[in-house]
Amino acid sequence: MNKKQSITAYLAKRIGALFILFVLVWTLVAKWVYHYAWDDTTEFYLHQDLELALSGQLALPYHFEGKYIGALDQMPTEYRLAVESTEIMFAHTALFATQSGDMYILKAQGVDEEPLYVVHFFSVQDSPSLMPIFIILAGAMLLPLGFVIWRIGAHVSKEADNVLESVANQVIKPSQFSEFDQFATVYKTAQFAQQHALDQERLFAAFLSHEIRTPLTKISHCMSRIQQIDDIPLEALDVLDTLEVSQRELSQIAQGILLLSRPNSSQLQNHALNNVLKRWRTKWHEHGLIIELQIEEHQIIQALHTVLFSLMLTQVAKNALQHGQGALDVYASDQGLRFENSVGGNHPSSGFGLGSKIIKQVCDCFGWYVKSTVHGERYVLEVIF
């Protein structure tokens, strides 16, 4: 998950990194230009001193305050070592950087046809570093940069607050930024669509409730009237019993479907699963499904709706009869439920049928997690509380 940050911090990091990169490039370029200009200036003064020496206005050898004009044999030791270390061509300037400073040397031909050297030496003390100046300038530039970032962040935050206020009050205020206007419009459209969908769901739930309950009520009344008739043939009693059982099952399923269409967590209450599972095992044993129930001795308490839980168990049993073979093994604990049986040879279960979808919807209503897997010839359905 990405770490949240304010707009001001976001701008400060991005613009600050760009500013540091700019300062570094600017410093390198400025130093390069400075040294290039320094070299050109020094070379100009070297040639100027050479002209003075050749014109006879200076007594050679000349040595004063970092300047030397004369022959090689009379040159100070430090200068001579630098000259002897590298061959210098006539009428060319050479730069030697030493620990004590920078040395510029111009080699020319003297009046007596002997090599004449013009040396300008700049000690470290005479050549102050430019870094303090660059640091001071960069620090001075931070003040207006920080002010600009603060103003931009404050303005964007204000516009964002206006958008949130517009959404909360359901009145879109014009924003200076087109992106914020677009966001507010899209958000309001999504809100309207969500509210419209909720209204449609309520209407559908009310319609579904009416359309399902009306025929069920008629069936119930007809069954009551039939039971009041005295001269019913004995052969019809079994049929009436079957109809009555089917009517009760249909009523329970219809009630569960209606609850699924409008789930409400406030209707969930704590119930013990032990007795519900045992009754479910007994009921489906009559339908030919053998359920091997392994349950803990203590009561397993969960917040649920008994009608929906019974609907889920009914779908599990139906899937076991339709797509499986053999006994259905059920393991119940405080952590969840586990249903396991062998996959039928003619009806392999994929776990994506209507029954599986109803099971998932019921688990979603209870806040449970459900997953189905196939291990070889065994189908496993796990419900995790």
From TrEMBL:
The keyword Transmembrane helix applies. It catalyses: ATP + protein L-histidine = ADP + protein N-phospho-L-histidine. SMART domains: HisKA. InterPro entries: HATPase_C_sf, HisK_dim/P_dom, HisK_dim/P_sf. GO terms for molecular function: phosphorelay sensor kinase activity. It comes from the Bacteria. Keywords: Membrane, Transmembrane, Transmembrane helix. The chain crosses the membrane at residues 12-34, 130-150. Pfam families: HisKA. Its EC number is 2.7.13.3. Residues 200-266 form the Signal transduction histidine kinase dimerisation/phosphoacceptor domain. The keyword Cell inner membrane does not apply. This is histidine kinase. It comes from Pseudoalteromonas luteoviolacea.
